[in-house]
Amino acid sequence: MPNPDPARRNEKSRRAVLTATLDLLHDLPYPQLSIEGIATRAGVGKQTIYRWWPSKAAVLFDAFLLLSEDGEGALPVLPDTGDLRADLTLVLRATAAELNDPQLAAPMRALATEITHDPALAEAYHERLDAPLREAKRQRLRSAQAAGELDDDLDLDVAIDVIWGPVLNRWLQRSGPLSDEYIETLVTTVLEGMRRRSPCD
Amino acid sequence: MPNPDPARRNEKSRRAVLTATLDLLHDLPYPQLSIEGIATRAGVGKQTIYRWWPSKAAVLFDAFLLLSEDGEGALPVLPDTGDLRADLTLVLRATAAELNDPQLAAPMRALATEITHDPALAEAYHERLDAPLREAKRQRLRSAQAAGELDDDLDLDVAIDVIWGPVLNRWLQRSGPLSDEYIETLVTTVLEGMRRRSPCD
DNA sequence: AAAGCGAGACGAGACGTTGCGTATTGCAAA
DNA sequence: TTTGCAATACGCAACGTCTCGTCTCGCTTT
Question: Stated in angstroms, how far is A56 CA from C16 C1'?
Fold first, then answer.
């Protein structure tokens, strides 16, 4: 009797577990979230959780997946008004708003920290959650390249890191607020670069 | 009998606890690190730990503090050869080497993740560990401003985030290797900016 | 078609283990 | 003589495994 048969899996129990996980995270910090607590809240046997998920982090990941699938069925797309600076500012502000929302912040922090300790989870994250979003960002930057706003030989992946890395980092490390001013300055710095220019602008 | 008297504290026990913490982190991931394990390894009573530290994270923080104080008594300074690009590349490579060293990586990951869940720890981190390093970075950038390499109205704190944020982020999220090529491209992108330039370089 | 059957997921919860944080006991140092 | 110390017992909570009895399927047999 090796593995359980996914075909016979009870979808209702699955969703109950995931929503219970999200519910509980509204009230208590992730480290205090327990499998037993999830099972009780979901009205589910502990074994049902241990049967389908290898770890608390895996449950969290699926819960997160449920969240993002509910929000948007299709692939994410970044706004493209032709003004890259405006679009980036808009998107980063939206991101900041999400990160400042305690509702979403709790599971996001939890996922982010589990990823740093669990390589397997990290890979799943990049495949299922990060990749589509990253592709959307890449697409927007490609469009800006086509429009002549960006250098053609710019490394888009590095560019994405340079734009979003500081925001995520500031949030994770709590080094400061994700204010509009910060985002404004960030976008300017990234677009213009740090080097002094000869006076030809 | 309210608080213990720090004057009568046993320095030997203190160091035993902190070094035991670091030792244990070489062998097992941080989540599996237990107070009881530290006490046993250190040859110390559990109560001695609970008397002086409020949490596992606090022990970790002090252990980390011990590490950085051992490494360098004085304030850190970044190299300044007059060539900002070269200096940044050098420093980032050194940082990447540290982060790639499993010895140091374990406690660093642990500290980074605890910070995201514990605001009090985050503040202590920024005061005692991040601030001095950040000041050194700021100083180097100021020097570059004075040398005319950088714009005078550049926001140095944002600049620091833009340079170091992507590295830390890539490492925490395991989104890719901290290779020399990555650092090279990163430094170039940050210094030159993403925007297309009119041909006046 | 209807009744019987086996497999396997399910809710519930007991079980031994582990680590938590507290309390107690001598001992040693200041 | 006071108080931090190592050691260890304690109650508690969550762990992960296990064993129940129930249920829901899909496949036979009639």
Answer: 21
